[in-house]
């Protein structure tokens, strides 16, 4: 517990908090400038205020998912570091997956303060940072060219020998495929604990992760069905956080009965 106390020390809070405060000030400056620019362009102030209120409202529930991520990581990495990562540039699914993978790579058998060492923490923190910084770096190099492509007319298809291929949704498809691959890799690791013998299946590990994964998948499917059938597009902002909350509740429930 001595290491956890150092990770939660006032110095760590000061370092991480100052960076978060700097980013928050930048956000306020950009928000004020955007509002003033809207007024200069003649946009109705009442409409801009409605947009501000709606945006603030719709960020509340998704931010709960971020808070859950901070809480989940704080037990092994302290509070300041996950708070910094998930407040500034980190993504919830990225931070938790990379931290877990890095912990296993350094040989501490997963995220746990019991096996955490200063060297392991430095390695985990380094990998969490280095893996996600390339978006910022590449924007310095090719940001202007990329912005020009966004402003240009969309290329919706490409001619091939067999016809034309629709490319309009390739980015979304690629991201979805990558995420499914990551999730499948984790689920396969737990599914590998199922052993078949003498006509019966047994678990060499705990079935809890698979049960929670099934519940969270079902919850997400319900959110998607409601959005598609009821036209509730606003659910897109809440589906991930809602599924996480339902999954965590199911983990507590299954943990008591398994």
What distinguishing features does this structure have?
6% strand, mainly alpha, two-stranded antiparallel ribbon, 258 residues, 11 helices, 72% helix, globular
Give a description of the structure.
The structure is a single chain. This protein has a two-stranded antiparallel ribbon with strand order 1-2. A two-stranded antiparallel ribbon has the order 3-4. Helix content is 72%, strand content 6%. Helix 4 (60-77) runs antiparallel to helix 5 (80-88) and helix 6 (92-105) packs across helix 7. It has 2 domains: 2-137, no CATH class; 166-257, no CATH class. The chain has helices at residues 2-7, 10-40, 45-58, 60-77, 80-88, 92-105, 118-130, 134-151, 170-191, 208-230, 239-257; strands at residues 157-160, 163-166, 194-197, 200-203. A hairpin with a 2-residue loop joins strand 1 (157-160) and strand 2. It is mainly alpha-helical.
């Amino acid at each position: 517990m001595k290491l956890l106390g150092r990770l939660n020390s006032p110095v760590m809070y000061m370092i991480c908090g100052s960076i978060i405060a700097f980013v928050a000030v930048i956000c306020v400056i950009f928000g004020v400038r955007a509002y003033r620019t809207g007024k200069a362009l003649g946009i109705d102030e009442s409409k801009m205020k409605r947009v501000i209120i709606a945006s603030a409202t719709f960020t509340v529930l998704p931010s709960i998912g971020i808070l859950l991520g901070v809480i989940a990581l704080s037990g092994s990495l302290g509070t300041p570091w996950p708070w910094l990562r998930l407040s500034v540039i980190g993504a919830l699914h990225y931070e938790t997956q990379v931290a877990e993978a890095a912990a296993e790579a350094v040989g501490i058998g997963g995220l746990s303060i019991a096996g955490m060492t200063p060297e392991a923490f430095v390695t985990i923190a380094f990998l969490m940072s280095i893996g996600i910084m390339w978006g910022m770096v590449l924007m310095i190099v090719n940001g202007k060219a990329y912005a020009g492509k966004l402003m240009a007319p969309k290329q919706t298809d490409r001619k091939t020998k067999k016809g034309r291929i629709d490319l309009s949704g390739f980015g979304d498809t690629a991201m979805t495929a990558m995420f499914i691959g990551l999730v499948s890799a984790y689920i396969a690791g737990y599914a590998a604990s199922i052993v078949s013998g003498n006509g019966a299946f047994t678990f060499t590990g705990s079935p809890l992760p698979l049960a929670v994964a099934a519940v969270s998948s079902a919850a997400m499917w319900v959110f998607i069905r409601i959005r598609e059938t009821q036209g509730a597009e606003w659910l897109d902002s809440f589906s991930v956080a809602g599924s996480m909350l339902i999954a965590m509740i199911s983990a507590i429930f299954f943990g008591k009965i398994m």
